[in-house]
Amino acid sequence: MGTKPKVVVAMSGGVDSSLTAALLVREGYEVIGATMRLSDDSRDFNPADDQGCCTLSAVDDARRVAEIIGIPHYVLNFREMFQKTVIDYFVDEYAAGRTPNPCVACNRYVKFEGLLERCRELGAEYVATGHYAKIEPGADGRYLLRKGADVAKDQSYVLYHLNQNSLRHFLMPLGGYTKAQTRKLAEELDLPVANKPESQEICFVPNDDYKSYLREKVPTALKAGDIVDLSGKVLGRHQGVPLYTIGQRRGLGIAAKHPLYVVSLDMKDNKVIVGEDRDVFCRGLIAADMNWIMIDSLEAPLAVTAKIRYGSRESAALVTPLPDGQVKVVFAEPQRAVTPGQSVVFYDEDKVIGGGIIVKELRG
Amino acid sequence: MPMKPIYFDYASTTPADKEVAALMADTMVRCFGNPSSVHSFGREALALVAKARRQLAELVGARPQEIVYTSGGSESDNLALKGAAYARRQRGNHIITTAIEHHALLHSCKQLEEQGFAVTYLQPDNDGWIDPAEVAAALRDETILISVMFANNEVGTVQPIREIGALARDRGIWFHTDAVQAAGHLPIDVAAMNIDLLSLSGHKFYGPKGIGALYVRHGIRLESQIAGGAQEWGLRAGTENVPGIAGLGLAAQKAQAEQENENKRLGKLSERLIARIEAELPLARLNGHREKRLPGNVNFSFLGISGESLLLNLDMAGIAASSGSACAAGSLEPSHVLLAMGLSSELARSSLRISLGRENTAAEIDYLADQIVAVVRRLEDMKASGSWR
C-alpha cells in the first residue's frame, strides 16, 4: 500500500507522547494511540492524583489528543499484570525484609515488556513512546541506546533494561530534539502543551500515605525500632524503616552537635543507621539483575561512567564481573546516598552499556 | 475490510427505529406541552403519554396504570429494589437475587446491605441458569423480595421466571425481574409469569436512550426514590420525557409486532455463526445455555487468547462487538457473569460477545466468522511462536 508499518503510541495525554503520535503520523506511519490502565477505578476518580500516566484524566486527555490528530485510541487493561508484577512484588519484598523499587519493576515488566507484547497482538510492528532517548542501529548489527539530544531531559537511565529484541521494535522520535524544540513543535501542530507531572512518589499508594498503605498490606514491615549511629549506639526511635530514605536529614527527631543523615537502612534488624554527611558517601556498590545493551555480557573489568539515580550525573567508575552475573562497581570519587533498590546505569559517553539494580553499598 | 464498520453489539444498545426517531423529533417541536398542565397543550402531551403507556402495557401483558416511566433500566432496577425493600421493611429484611444480575441491580443490593438488609446472591450453574430449587432453598421467613433477571445480557441464558415467580407468589413475596434484555425480544406475560415488578429500557429494542419503564403490579406500593411532583402516581417525580415516552411506546409496539419473525431470523443467523466458529476453532467454548438463550446472543471464550486483543483487532477490521464490561476508563474487565458461572479468570478474559439485531445479514455473519477465525488463529500463532522474533 506504500505506507509505513503500524505503530502503537503509548499516550499519557501529555505533550511528549502527543507530539510523538503527531510526528509519526506526519512520517506516514499507520498510528494507533493507546493508554495503559494500571490501577483500579476508585483511585482513578481522585482528581488530586494527576500522577501522569495512567489515571482517568490521562485517558481522557489522550483520547482528546487522538481525536485532534485523527488516530484511533484504545485503553489497554494492564491491571492484573500491574497487580502481580508491581504491587504484589512491592508487598512481598517488604515482607521479606528487602526494599523494593516498584517503579523499576513497572518499567521493566509492564511499561515495556507487557506493552510490547500487547501491541504485537494488535498487529503493530513498532511501539513508540515520548522518551528523550535515541535508539539506533550500531555498526555490528546491535541496536544502541543513546542519550537524548537534550542532556538535561535525557531519559535513557530508565530504559537500561531494554534488550535487543525490544530495542528493535521501539521508536523514540523525540530523542533528537530538545525540550524547547518539542514544545515549539507541539504548539505549531496545535497540540495541547501541558506537561504531565513526573511524580517522584509511588503511584499506587493512595495519597502518598506509605504508613497507612504498609500498615494495611504488610504490617510486619512497619515496626518502630532504634535509630543508631555507626558504632551501634542508640540515638532515637524510628517509626518503620520503609519510611526513610538514604541521605535523608529531616524527620529524624534527634538533637545532635552535627547534622545527622540516614546512612543505611537495615530492614532485617529493623534499624535506621545515621551518621554525618561524609558517612553518606560510598566508594562503590554491588549490582545484580544486570541487562547489557552495548555488549553481550561483561567478561572483564570495564571503565565506564555510572549513574546511580535518575536525577544525578554520571561518575567515572570501574565495573568488574562477579560470579552469578552480579557486578562490583568502584567509583573514582565517592558517591552520595547509594541506595539499594535503585538502578545503576553504565555509559560510554552517550551510549548505554547496560545497568542493573543496586543490592549493596560498599564502604571503607 | 468493509467500507463501513458493521455493528454486532445490539445487546449493548440499538439504533433508534427511523419511524421512532421521526415521531420523537416531531413531538419535541409540535407536542411540547407539560402533561401536568390543565390547558390544551398539556392535554395533548398527556394523550401521547397515555398512548405509550398502553403500548408498553401491551408489550408485557399488564394494565396501563401499572406502567411507571423512568430514565431507563438502571433507574428501574434502583426503584424496584430500593422502592420495594423500604416499603416492606416492617415485614422483613431479606432479599434473594443472583450473582449474574446487571450492576445497577447488584449495586442497589449493596446499598441495601449497608442499610441493614440481608441479601442472598444465588450462583448460576455452568450455563448461567438459575435453578428454582436454589431459590426455594434460600427462602426465609424474613424474605420480602426476589429479583432474578429474565435473560442475561452477557450469555443470553433465559431464566425460569414463571417457576421462580410462582415460588414468590405462594409466599406473598414480591418478585422483580430485570427484563432489560428480554423486553421487546421475548414474549412476556406478567400475570401468567407471576411477575410483580419488571424493568425495561427503550434503547435495547430500537427505542431512544434515556427512557425506560418499571411495571408495578396493581396493589404494590413502592417507596419512591425521586422526590418532587406527583407524576407517575407519586412514584417518580419529574416532568415526563414526552418525546422519549412517545418513542418508547412506538418502539414497543413495533418490536412486539415483528418479534416472532425476527426471533426466527436471528436464531438462524446465530446458528450459522456458531456452526462456523465451532467447526474452525476447536478451542472455542460457547458460553451460556445452548437452547434457553436469547436468539441473537452468541458468546464464546477462546482458550489462551486475550479478549481485549481479539476485540481491538476486530474493531480494526470494522467489526463492533463486546467482551466483558467496560470500566470507567474504557478498558475491559472480565465479566462477573462468566466468573459466577465458574469460568476461570483466564477463560473469562478470553471471551467475545456477539449480539445480533435488525440490520445483520447472512453475508455480514460470514464476514464476521471469517474475521474471528483469522484473528484468533493469528493470536494463537503469536502465542505459540513466543515473544517477538
Characterize the structure shown.
- The complex is a heterodimer of chains A (364) and B (389).
- Helix content of chain A is 25%, strand content 29%.
- With 364 residues, chain A is an alpha/beta fold.
- Chain A has 3 domains: 6-188, 3-Layer(aba) Sandwich (Rossmann fold), CATH 3.40.50.620; 224-275, no CATH class; 281-362, Beta Barrel (Elongation Factor Tu (Ef-tu), domain 3), CATH 2.40.30.10.
- Mean pLDDT of chain A is 88; it is low at 42-52.
- Chain B has 389 residues and is of the alpha/beta class.
- Chain B folds into 2 domains: 6-14 and 259-385, Aspartate Aminotransferase, domain 1 (Alpha-Beta Complex), CATH 3.90.1150; 18-254, Type I PLP-dependent aspartate aminotransferase-like (Major domain) (Aspartate Aminotransferase, domain 2, 3-Layer(aba) Sandwich).
- In chain B, 41% of the residues lie in helices and 14% in strands.
- Chain B has helices at residues 18-30, 40-60, 73-87, 103-114, 132-138, 161-170, 242-280, 307-316, 336-340, 345-349, 362-385; strands spanning 6-7, 67-70, 94-98, 118-122, 143-147, 174-178, 197-201, 212-216, 284-286, 297-302, 319-320, 325-326, 332-333, 351-355.
- Chain B has a 7-stranded mixed β-sheet, with helices on both faces. In chain B, strands 9-10-14 form a 3-stranded antiparallel β-sheet. In chain B, strands 1-11 form a two-stranded parallel ribbon.
- In chain B, helix 1 packs antiparallel against helix 7.
- The longest helix of chain B is centred in the C-terminal third of the chain and has 39 residues, at 242-280.
- The A-B interface holds A 32, 35, 37, 41, 44-45, 56, 59, 63, 72, 74-77, 79-80, 116-118, 120-123, 165, 168-169 and B 306, 308-309, 312-313, 315-316, 327-333, 345, 378-379, 382, 387-389.
Question: What labels would you give this structure?
Answer:
heterodimer; A: 364 residues; alpha/beta; Rossmann fold; Elongation Factor Tu (Ef-tu), domain 3; 3 domains; six-stranded antiparallel β-barrel; five-stranded parallel beta sheet; 8 helices; 17 strands; globular; B: 389 residues; Aspartate Aminotransferase, domain 1; Aspartate Aminotransferase, domain 2; 2 domains; seven-stranded mixed beta sheet; three-stranded antiparallel beta sheet; 11 helices
